[in-house]
């Protein structure tokens, strides 16, 4: 399996590169020219295509012949960086490739997510301020995901909770809607977010899903597992 990691030099990207190599995949990484050095640990084991992730020529070259593309959607600046990145991947990835995109819980596929007051406040307050400072445009990630959802590709959009560093705890659990009790703990190890992204490449049940994830050892995930065990039942 040949996979491209778009945004390979970031924290999530580097973990994804590592998981992909652990699985024996051939890896191509895309990152900004100035960040190539962050991938030195993988020298000789991956191919690096330097450039902006919304540069269509860069993406066309990087995803050629790939069976899977893992894309970090980061809404930097106010010129549609995420949207440009997503669109280039949608346009140039081989037709049957598995496409897996990362984003946050604030993205909603069907409008049925139930958000906490805190998350609404963060998005409502931080969003406009960040855009005003021309630093981040949250709506850019919303538009990027809207285009992914509307595409006829084999996509999965993985929605991350709050993140923390630390050793892997195992594959996160997921649910279709933010607000579901299993997600209440709202914390995932970044290394495990990356694990979920990479595992999604070979999990066809996740095609056209936007799983909201949470760490499998968090209290809400464990409480859910206990309740399911007691009922002898499983599912999302
Ligand atoms: N942080 C959280 O708490 C959180 C929570 C939920 C979901 N997520 C999602 O997780 C994913 C990864 O987020 P992360 O916070 O962990 O960050 P990250 O993995 O460190 O990735 C940030 C990415 O953005 C790039 N980048 C940074 N500054 C840039 C700039 N000015 N212009 C263009 N690109 C720039 C980085 O590339 P360089 O290496 O070149 O700098 C890197 O590829 C995102 O999809 C995010 O929505 C994050």
**Which structural category fits the helices and strands?**
alpha/beta
Query: What is the global morphology?
Result: globular
Q: Specify the biggest β-sheet.
A: 6 strands, parallel
Query: What's the CATH C level?
Result: Alpha Beta
| Beta-strand content | 15-25%
Q: Assign a percent range to the helix content.
A: 25-40%
Give the overall average pLDDT. 93
Terminus-to-terminus distance:
29 Å
Describe the fold and architecture.
- The chain has one domain (2-231): Rossmann fold (3-Layer(aba) Sandwich).
- The chain has helices at 11-22, 56-63, 81-92, 117-132, 138-150, 190-200, 219-231, and strands at 2-6, 26-31, 46-50, 68-72, 98-104, 154-160, 163-164, 173-175, 188-189, 212-214.
- It is built from seven helices and ten strands.
- The strands form three sheets. A six-stranded parallel beta sheet has the order 3-2-1-4-5-6, sandwiched between helices.
- The relative contact order is 0.14.
- Bound molecules: NADP nicotinamide-adenine-dinucleotide phosphate.
- Residues 7, 9-13, 31-32, 35, 38, 72-74, 76, 81, 102-104, 160, 162-163, 190 line the site of NADP nicotinamide-adenine-dinucleotide phosphate.
Could you give a quick summary of the protein structure above?
This protein is α/β, with parallel strands linked by helices and 236 residues long.
Give the SSE map.
Layout: E1 2-6, H1 11-22, E2 26-31, E3 46-50, H2 56-63, E4 68-72, H3 81-92, E5 98-104, H4 117-132, H5 138-150, E6 154-160, E7 163-164, E8 173-175, E9 188-189, H6 190-200, E10 212-214, H7 219-231
Parallel strand pairs: 1-2, 1-4, 2-3, 4-5, 5-6, 7-9
Antiparallel strand pairs: 8-10
Bound molecules: NADP nicotinamide-adenine-dinucleotide phosphate.
Residues 7, 9-13, 31-32, 35, 38, 72-74, 76, 81, 102-104, 160, 162-163, 190 line the site of NADP nicotinamide-adenine-dinucleotide phosphate.
